[in-house]
Structure formats: structure tokens, C-alpha cells
Amino acid sequence: MPSGPQTADRPYWELAPEPPPRGARPGPRRPDNRPRASAALLGLGAVLVVVLIGVGVWILGHRGSASNSGTGPPSHSASSSPSSVRALTPVAANGFDALSTPADDPKNENDDLARFAIDSNPSTSWNTQFYLNNPVFGGLKTGTGLILDMGRPVRLSSVQVTFGPIPGADVQIKLGNNNTRAPGALSSFTTVASATGVGGTHTFTVHSQATGRYVLIWFTKLPPQSAGSSDRFGAKIFNVTVRGSH
User: Fold this and answer.
1) Which of 66, 90, 190, 233 has a CB 3.0–4.6 Å from the CB of 222, allowing a cystine?
2) What is the distance of C-alpha 150 from the center of its chain?
């Protein structure tokens, strides 16, 4: 039995002192018995999780749509490629002496030899008539040439001509639709390329958009007919390669 004074109206177990507190008293709690700070942090965390999930879904969806949309670097269509430019084969060749005036001039500029300029044989050639004492056709006219019939209208990219080996020819490449041997027909042609003093193989690059059925290789000055000659002039063409499109 415990000793010491007792009160008559209170039992002894209620007289013992309360135990000392351990740490700070807990703060007020929300009705759901959770501290206010913890609830706020949990709510903020939930919001961040939702936002992150949404961002991830958007990124994945965006990548998937980009990979399937075909919006990568644009590819060039076949129509924009230069594949339409190719070698074009003439169907015929003729001498073109449109400005001949002398009564004794045959006016055909060796027409019977013209086929040799398009036979792809490097040992055969067409040649102009020869002219005396003046490289501009002996002073008789201002030009003569070889005309190629392409069979239908063409647009030129280049014309490669193998001339004789002696340089000195002034040449124009013309394009037109009238092969009549007459000054009026010649004036209807469009000059699409030119060069001076040429000899050997020369490529005429054409940038014109003009079209025409006939390609005219027109000489305005002739080279010496042979090396060292100063009184005989004439041109040769061994081969012609035409490139372009129909």
C-alpha cells in the first residue's frame, strides 16, 4: 500500500504527477487528421505528376506524327531532273547556201556530202566549197552553212561539232522551222550560240528556250583550207552531236 497523505475523496492513482512532455506539441490537424503542410505538398506533387505525364504523351505523339507525316527533306521529282536532255539524232542533213548570188554558183554548198557530217564516222566529212583570197567567202556573200533536220521541233542543250583541225572559223548555231534556201528563211532563224576562231572539236552550249525543227550550223568566216594557206578558204565538219529535248 502506498504511504503518504491521501485525500478522502480522490483515489491515489489520480494524485500522481503527469509525465513530462516529449518534444513540441503537434500542431492542429485537418479534419482528415493530416497536417496542412503535408497535404499541400502531396497536392502539388500530384499536379506535377499529371503535368509530366501530359508533356510526355505530347512529345511521343509529336515525334510519331513527324516520323509518319513524310515532312523530311523534300525529294526532287522526276520532272525536275535533267533526264529529259538526251542525244538527238538528225533525220537528214543538207548544205544550206541561202545567200548565193553568182550565176555559176551551184547554190547547194556540197549538198551531196552533207550526210557524212551525221554518220558518226570520224574519217568522213562534209565541207564547204572553197573560196579565194578572202575568208569571208571570197567577198561573194556573208555566210553559208549545214542544216540538220531533226524531224520535229526540239529545244537545244548543246551542239558538239568536230570541225577540221585548222582554227579560224566563225560559227553560229541557229534554230528555226524553214529550210528553204532563201534569205527570208534565214532571217526567221534564232541564233542560240556562237563562237569565233574555232577548229577541231567544239561544244556550243545553248541557254536559249527557243525551239525549232532545223538546226543550222552557219559559217560567217572560213578557216584556211590548208595549213599556211592565205588564198584558199573552206570549212569541214566531220561529226555533229546534238543534245536537247523534244
Assistant:
1) 233
2) 26
Residue 68 φ/ψ, nearest 5 degrees: -100, -10
Amino acid present at 169: A
Q: Is 62 helix (H, G, I), strand (E, B) or coil?
A: helix
Q: Are 233 and 79 in contact (CB under 8 A)?
A: no
Query: Using CA of residue 112, residue 124, residue 102, residue 149, what is the dihedral sign?
Result: positive
Every domain of the chain and the residues it spans: 101-245
Greatest distance between any 2 Cα atoms in the chain: 169
Q: Are 237 and 163 within 8 A, CB to CB?
A: yes
**Number of helical H runs and strand E runs in the chain:** 2, 11
3-class SS shares of the chain: helix, strand, coil, % to 5: 25, 30, 45
Which among 234, 88, 79, 233 has a CA at the least distance from the CA of 175? 88
CATH topology of domain 101-245: Jelly Rolls (2.60.120)
Give the tens place of pLDDT for each residue, 106-162.
678 999 999 999 999 999 999 999 999 999 999 999 999 999 999 999 999 999 999
The CA distance from 82 to 89, in Å, is 18
CA nearest neighbour of 194 among 208, 203, 204: 204
Tracing cell 560559227 back to the chain, one arrives at 171
Contact 2, 16 (CB under 8 A): no
Q: Which grid cell is 182?
A: 532563201
Query: Per-residue DSSP letters for 9-60?
Result: SS-GGGSSPPPPP-SSPP----TTS--HHHHHHHHHHHHHHHHHHHHHHHHH
